[in-house]
Sequence to fold (175 residues):
Amino acid sequence: MPARAKVKSTTKRAAELSHVDAKGEVRMVDVSGKAGSLREAVARGALVLSRKGFEAVAENRVAKGDVLTVAKIAGIQAAKGTASLIPLCHPIPLDHVEVTATLDAGGCRIEIEARTRTRSSTGVEMEALTAVTVAGLTAYDMVKAVDRTAVLSEIRLVSKSGGRSGPYRRAGEKR
Fold:
């Protein structure tokens, strides 16, 4: 019999946690009573490369192909599969996913951004974050033969809108 995940806390504290029931059992939140609304999220991250790795990407000389295009496709695909990767995440219908991957020559970086949108009863932050992460991992996989020093970093939620908690914007982020 598999071990059951329980939160070691008082019943009062467990009741305050959205993914824990009153007995301390892990659960998926019930959103069936929430009305659907337009929800959007933006996430960003970067793959920092060596000069050699950056030039290989910029000059499209990576043996596995066009790094930026494949990373964008991987990010879109990942957003659509977020609920299969994150156990307590709801599967939601995505109305829009946009992933951009741009080169920053000054920083030897691939800047990655994901924008997600749904009309659902729960948010799309995890889908945007997953898209950025998988796009970055894909770029790393493609460039690792020329640059094993590459670092995927700064993955963060930039903004979100919709839902009961209202809008959020990370301080200091450009649009």
